[in-house]
Amino acid sequence: MAIVTGTRRTGILSRIGLYLVLGGFALLLLFPFLYLVGGSLKAREDVFSYPPQVLPREPRTADVGGEPRPLFTVDGRELALLGEEEIGRFAPPDDLDAIVEVPTGDVEPTGGYTDQQTAVVDGEEQDLFDVPVDGGVVPMVEREVFEVGRFAAPDDPETEVLAPVEQAVAVERIGARPGNYREVLELQTLDRSLTNTLLVTTLVVAGTVFTSVLGGYAFARIRFPGRTAAFLVYIGSNMVPFVIILVPLYQLMVAVGWVDSLAALVFPFVFNAYGTFLMRQFFVSIPKELEEAAFVDGASRWTILWRIFVPLSRPAIATLATFMFLYAWNSFVWPFIVINAGNTENHVLTLSLQVLGGRAADSPNLVFAGVAIAVVVPVVVFVLLQRYFVENVATSGIK
Predict the structure, then answer these.
(1) What are the backbone angles phi and psi of residue 145, rounded to the nearest 5°?
(2) Could you count the other beta carbons within 10 Å of the beta carbon of residue 339?
(3) Which is deepest, 108, 143, 226, 355, by most CB within 10 Å?
(4) pLDDT at residue 115 above 50?
């Protein structure tokens, strides 16, 4: 009994350790996405804060004199910042150690602004200032100028405390700014680009699935002269890099008048050799007995394709649709070439994000928001279709 209990305890500890390791790796992989979402909800100043933080934060405020004032931690107390002052350190020319600190607004040039007097200090000529000291005025030279904040407790605003703002720690709380998304949509008309991208991606995915199903069934089930050779040539086109056909494809778009239009982003990509290959390989794995039984019952090839083969091919179709969705959604090179930069009405997300990177270079929170808009849709599509990736692609329905 003791041996069994010890073995069970060891198994539980091993499983817990495995889950912790896998959870750590999952968190590491998710961190860039979490930082992106957090950055898209931050204020501009929060993005540049150090040390960087994932969650968006905003400064806490307190009502002082009917106005909201930011709160800071000064000497362990939460005080409201009432304002900032410039403090100068002054000293007599003949006694530089006798430093006096006074607001720079309380001093005036000795002799006036038009005829300011000077004194030689350490071999250098420096301006003199009239500094109020003990009810009198003493000519002194300026040694240093720094800024301090005027702080006070929210419940006792009359009692002020002077402290360097750099040494005060802002009191913050978690606070998101969803308005960043509205601002970035208005800044770069991403709403129009998002609509165009959804339209182009939907048409590309639907067209590719349709043509791939037809082509895959033809190469898998219909015998005709030269079928194998035609299939090899068609699949061999995958070996041709896209950059090789960029110029001929652009010339074709010019010839048919599709340059600078969404049609140029759709029709060249609805015929896909990889999709045909994927569907053909899946259709080959479906037992011929299903097809023969359907022929005996009087079904036509069209009926067999759409009522037998396609329902059984949901995993392959979902995989193809996901791949094509990601390809069409993230396409940049071809839209960049065929769509005019000034034609924002036909821009897709990738083009708008490129322009946004320049227009909002000083506001990375808006860039984060634009990227998040472009990322969230593919993530949702992948989550919805991922279960098809683990299904048995050889499922035929025969018991």
Answers:
(1) -130, 130
(2) 22
(3) 355
(4) yes
219 near 286, Cβ under 8 Å? Answer: no
Residue 97 phi/psi, 5-degree rounding, is -85, -15
pLDDT at 6: 62
Per domain, the residue ranges of the chain are: 2-56, 61-170, 181-390
Exposure string for 213-233, b = 16+ CB within 10 A, e = fewer: bebbbbbbbeeeeeeeeebee
Instruction: Record the tokens describing residue 146, joined without a space.
Output: 């720094």
Q: Which phi and psi (to 5°) does residue 75 adopt? A: 55, 40
3-class state of residue 394 by DSSP: coil
Q: State the Cα–Cα distance between residues 252 and 131, nearest whole angstrom.
A: 81
C-alpha span between 7 and 14 (Å, rounded): 10
Helix H, strand E, coil C: the string for 169-225 is: EECEEECCCCHHHHHHHHHHCHHHHHHHHHHHHHHHHHHHHHHHHHHHHHHHHCCCC
CA distance 62 to 173: 13
CATH superfamily of 181-390: MetI-like (1.10.3720.10)
- 194-209 burial, b at 16+ Cβ within 10 Å, e below that, comes to bebbeebbebbbebbb
Rounded Cα distance between 143 and 155, Å, is 36
Residue the block writes with tokens 């950055």: 39
Backbone angles phi, psi at 79, to 5 degrees: -120, 150
What does the block give as tokens for 376?
Answer: 């969230």
Helix residue ranges, H only, 286-387: 288-296, 301-304, 310-312, 314-330, 333-338, 349-359, 364-385
Q: Which amino acid is at 207?
A: G
pTM score above 0.90: no
Query: Tokens 């068609």 — which residue?
Result: 234
Residue closest to 92 by CA, chosen among 137, 57, 61, 42 = 137
Q: What is the pLDDT of residues 298-354, one digit of tens each?
A: 888 899 889 989 988 888 898 899 889 989 999 999 999 999 888 888 899 888 888
Q: How far apart are CA 82 and CA 68, in angstroms?
A: 10
